[in-house]
Amino acid sequence: MNKFHYTSYNQEVIFGAGSLAHLSEVVDRFQWGRLMLLTGGSARRNGRVAQIEAALGPRLVATYDRVQPHVPDFQVAEAAALAIKNDIDALIGMGGGSPIGMAKAVSSALEEKHLGGQSHAASPRGSPLVPILAIPTTYAGSEMTTVFGVTHHNGGTAHKITATDARVTPRSVLYDPLLTLDLPPEMTATTGINALAHCIEALYSITRNPLSTAAALSGVRHIANSLTRCYAAGDDLQARTEMMTGSYLAGTALAHVAMGLHHGLCHVLGGSAGVPHGIANSIVLPHAMRYNLDATAPELARAAEAMGISQESRSPDSAAQAAVQRVSELIRQMHLPMRLRDAGVNEADLPLLAQLAVGSRAVQSNPKPISDAAQMEAILRAAW
Ligand code: NAD
Question: Is this prediction's pTM over 0.70?
Answer without folding.
Answer: yes
